[in-house]
Design goal:
By secondary structure, the chain is an alpha+beta fold. The protein folds into two domains: 177 residues, GAF domain (Beta-Lactamase); 59 residues, Arc Repressor Mutant, subunit A, CATH 1.10.10.10. Helices cover 53% and strands 15% of the residues. It has ten helices and five strands, in the order ααββααβαββααααα. Strands 2-1-5-4-3 form a five-stranded antiparallel β-sheet, sandwiched between helices. The chain is elongated and about 60 Å long.
């Protein structure tokens, strides 16, 4: 592969996506930015705020398998403790405490042959035809780890040293982009929950589905995006939006915003 610089257009597009609605956009844009540098099949980003079950921050797939969401869910619910990266993060925390410093960012490489558990290996490597995973592991907010996982397909083979050097050089920028995205999304979610709690006091009849609809609208989602996120048809999503608006006594998103900004 011919080495190229990062496309300014792609970098600009990535920056535009940070913290915005569309959970998976940041992972998809990372893959697009890295494409001229190194061939990759997938990207999955996790935060370890709850050690027992990591949170899926974003996923990106270069037209490889529609099963990536199921694979990521299986990882966080069943296989995370079997991941050698888990032990590596714990070991770095222990060493950091012993040396009175913060845990350092590092890259952990993993091939299918490194996985002893047959179910984990089949689900996360054999099924998506992954030859190697690079996990960029970074300590976040002095509280937990973030993991940016880059996957090489079997057609790509294992990563050679020159390509690994490119990933290592770009890793700090990737980590910072994910930090900004995750922080922006958290602030957006916190604000949404605050607004929903205010609405609950004024409209105690709101249902969990109403909350889902309002949360999506507060994130700036249009009806097609809302439908996809809630697993609804477009017509069903439109019906839910209209029904929720009627409960609140508003006719459109503009009136909804005015209601949200009004004093209790």
């Amino acid at each position: 592969m011919q080495q190229e610089g990062l496309s300014p257009q792609r970098v600009h597009r990535l920056l535009q996506r940070l913290g915005r609605p569309g959970r998976d956009a940041v992972a998809e844009e990372l893959l697009a930015c890295l494409a001229p540098q190194v061939a990759l099949a997938q990207c999955a980003i996790f935060s370890f705020e709850r050690p027992s079950r990591p949170h899926i921050v974003a996923m990106g797939d270069r037209s490889r398998t529609s099963a990536l969401p199921d694979i990521a869910q299986a990882y966080v619910t069943r296989y995370v403790r079997l991941d050698p990266a888990w032990a590596a993060m714990q070991a770095e925390e222990v060493q950091a405490r012993a040396q009175a410093r913060a845990p350092r960012m590092f890259i952990q490489r993993q091939c299918p042959t490194d996985i002893a558990h047959a179910g984990y290996r089949h689900t996360c490597y054999t099924l998506p035809q992954v030859a190697e995973r690079l996990a960029i592991l970074a300590w976040y907010d002095n509280r937990y780890w973030m993991s940016i996982n880059l996957y090489r397909g079997e057609e790509h083979g294992a990563l050679s040293d020159p390509y690994l050097a490119r990933i290592e050089a770009l890793a700090p920028a990737m980590v910072e982009a994910v930090r900004l995205h995750h922080t922006g999304r958290q602030l957006e979610q916190d604000l949404a929950e605050l607004v929903l709690s205010r609405l609950d006091r004024r409209f105690p009849g709101l249902t969990p589905r109403d909350h889902d609809v309002l949360r999506a609208l507060l994130q700036g989602q249009d009806n097609p995006t809302l439908a996809a996120g809630l697993g609804l048809t477009l017509s069903s999503a439109q019906t839910y939006v209209k029904r929720t608006f009627r409960k609140l006594g508003v006719a459109n998103q503009r009136e909804l915003l005015a209601l949200l900004m009004a004093p209790e």
